[in-house]
Amino acid sequence: PRRVVTGIQPTGELHIGNYFGAIRRCVRLQEQGDDLMIFIADLHSLTTRQEPARLQARVLELAACVLAAGADPARCVLFVQSAVPRHAELCWLLTCLATHARLAHLPQYKEKAAAMKEVPLGLLLYPVLQAADVLLYGGTHVPVGADQVQHLQVAAALARTFAHRYGRAFPAPRALLADDGSDRLRSLRNPNKKMSKSDTDPKSRILLTDPDDIIELKIRKAVTDFTPQVTFEPETRPGVSNLVSIHCLAEDKLPEEVVQEAEGLSTAQYKRVVAAALQRELAPVRARARAAALAGLR
Ligand code: ATP
Ligand code: MG
C-alpha cells in the first residue's frame, strides 16, 4: 500500500482549508486502506515565535480536531513531531545535502522572509525538516495543499541526492493533490491569497470551531466582485469561485452542479446557501472536537 505522511502545524486554530485540504482528505485515504501517518508539526511551528504554554495547549487542541475529523487511531498513526528525535537528526543529515540557493528561492520562504526583519535560519531550513518528516517513514505520498508542491519537490530531490551519496535509502515522495479544489481555498478577505492560520485578519478564514452564526457572518462578509451571478471562474472571479469551491466540498458536489442550482440567485442570496451547507458539514465535527477536548484526550 501507499505510505501517506502528512503534518499540520499547531500555529493556530484549524480552518476549513486545513480541514478539507488536509485532514478530511487524509481521513478518506485512511478509509481507502492507505497506510496513514499524521503528525502535529510542533518543530515546524517554531520557525515563528511561539509562547510555550500556548503551543502545548494548541498541540492538544489540534489533536482533538484531527480525531474529531475522523482520524482513527486504530487505523492510522497520530503523533507529535518533537516526541520523535529522529526528525531533527535526519534533518541535519539532509541539511548537509541541501543547497542554500535552492531553499532561498522557494516562494513561501521569500514571502514569509520578506515580512520579517530578522529571518530565522529555521524558516530557510523548513523544507528540509519537512523532507526528513516524510523520508523517515518511507513516505510515498503526501496529501498537501498546492502551497506545498515545491517543498515536496525538494524532498524528492533530497531523497535522490542521498541515494547518490550514500546509497538508496528512501523512496522519492510525491505530492498528492486533490482534484476537487480542496487544495487551495482562498482567504475570504483577499481571494488572491490562500486561507491561512497565520493571516492576521480572523475574518479571512472560517475555523472548524466557529459556531453557526459566525460561519454565516464570515461568509456574508466574504469579498466577491460586482457581478451578481454565481459562476465558477477561479482565474477571473476568485472570490465567488472560492465560495463555490467551499460549497462543493461541504456537499461533495461538482462546480457545474452547484452553479446550476444557484441559477437565478444573486451572490448575496447564494452566500446563505453556502453558509447553510458549511454549517451542516461542520456541526458534527465541532461537537466531536469539543467532546474530545473536554475528555482531555486521555
Ligand atoms: P500557516 O499560515 O501557519 O502556515 P496554514 O493554514 O498554511 O498555516 P499548515 O499547518 O501550514 O496551515 O498546513 C496544514 C495543511 O493544510 C497542509 O497540508 C497545507 O497544504 C494545507 N492547507 C493550508 N492552507 C490551505 C488552503 N488554503 N487550502 C487547502 N489546504 C491548505
Ligand atoms: Mg502553511
From TrEMBL:
InterPro entries: aa-tRNA-synth_I_CS (IPR001412), aa-tRNA-synth_Ic (IPR002305), Rossmann-like_a/b/a_fold (IPR014729), Trp-tRNA-ligase (IPR002306), Trp-tRNA_synthetase (IPR050203)
GO BP field: mitochondrial tryptophanyl-tRNA aminoacylation
Primary location class: mitochondrion
ATP-binding as UniProt keyword: yes
Transmembrane segments: none
UniProt keyword terms in alphabetical order: Aminoacyl-tRNA synthetase, ATP-binding, Ligase, Nucleotide-binding, Protein biosynthesis
Subcellular location: Mitochondrion
Region (Disordered): 181-203
GO cellular component entries: mitochondrial matrix
Protein name: tryptophan--tRNA ligase
Taxonomic lineage: Eukaryota, Metazoa, Ecdysozoa, Arthropoda, Hexapoda
Gene that specifies this protein: LOC111359195
